[in-house]
């Protein structure tokens, strides 16, 4: 399966960053290109929640599969999107940088696609990297 990956270091504690990132319904606050993010089903911080994401790329519907506060991870899947991908699952993780007190954040996904290399590039360079850069700027 192809995969996409990006990571960054944020100048804030892991618990502080995780407290913000774990909200499945706040994507429009920090991900560039997202005009609206709303929870259609479930609670914004509970597995099973479905969010609707509207932006320049079109309409996405995503379901939160797992949320682990101890490990500071969330995993979600795409239910509907305009991109030619199937079986998409992504995970975000926040870990402490123990020698500096900063947060290490990574975002990665696996999926199936006819043009896997192209889709991997779109997710890595067009979504994950700018998203993490924007998230990093929220914690000056």
Helix content: 10-25%
Any guess at the CATH architecture? 2-Layer Sandwich
What is the H/E string?
Answer: EHHEEEEEEH
Major beta sheet, strand line-up: 1-7-6-5-4-3-2
The first-level CATH class name: Alpha Beta
CATH homologous superfamily - what is it? START domain
Outline the low-pLDDT stretches.
none
Structure classification: alpha+beta
Q: What name is given to the CATH topology?
A: Alpha-D-Glucose-1,6-Bisphosphate, Chain A, domain 4
Query: What global shape is seen?
Result: globular
Give me the Rg, rounded: 14 Å
Q: Would you count the extended β strands for me?
A: 7
InterPro entries: Polyketide_cyclase/dehydratase, START-like_dom_sf
Pfam family, one: Polyketide_cyc2
Protein name: Polyketide cyclase
Write the layout of secondary structure elements.
Elements: E1 3-10, H1 14-21, H2 27-30, E2 34-41, E3 50-55, E4 58-68, E5 73-80, E6 85-97, E7 102-113, H3 116-137
Antiparallel strand pairs: 1-7, 2-3, 3-4, 4-5, 5-6, 6-7
Organism: Microbispora corallina
Protein name: Polyketide cyclase
Q: Which labels suit this protein?
A:
START-like_dom_sf; 3 helices; 47% strand; 24% helix; 140 residues; 7-stranded antiparallel β-sheet; alpha+beta; Alpha-D-Glucose-1,6-Bisphosphate, Chain A, domain 4
Describe this structure in words.
This is Polyketide cyclase. It holds the Pfam family Polyketide_cyc2. It comes from Microbispora corallina. The chain is an alpha+beta fold and 140 residues long. It has a single domain (3-137), classed as START domain (Alpha-D-Glucose-1,6-Bisphosphate, Chain A, domain 4, 2-Layer Sandwich). Helices cover 24% and strands 47% of the residues. It contains three helices and seven strands; from the N terminus they run E-H-H-E-E-E-E-E-E-H. It has helices at residues 14-21, 27-30, 116-137; strands spanning 3-10, 34-41, 50-55, 58-68, 73-80, 85-97, 102-113. The protein has a seven-stranded antiparallel β-sheet with strand order 1-7-6-5-4-3-2. A hairpin with a 4-residue loop joins strand 5 and strand 6 (85-97). It starts with a strand and ends with a helix.
């Amino acid at each position: 399966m192809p995969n996409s990956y990006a990571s960054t270091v944020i100048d804030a504690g892991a618990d502080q960053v995780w407290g913000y990132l774990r909200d499945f319904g706040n994507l429009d606050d920090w991900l560039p290109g997202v005009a609206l993010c709303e929870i259609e089903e479930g609670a914004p911080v509970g597995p099973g929640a479905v969010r609707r994401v509207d932006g320049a790329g079109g309409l996405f519907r995503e379901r939160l599969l797992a949320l682990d506060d101890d490990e500071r991870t969330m995993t979600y899947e795409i239910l509907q999107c305009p991109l030619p991908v199937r079986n998409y699952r992504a995970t975000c993780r926040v870990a402490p940088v123990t020698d500096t007190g900063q947060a290490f954040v990574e975002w990665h996904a696996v999926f199936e696609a006819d043009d896997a290399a192209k889709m991997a590039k779109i997710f890595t360079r067009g979504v994950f990297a700018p998203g993490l850069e924007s998230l990093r700027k929220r914690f000056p």
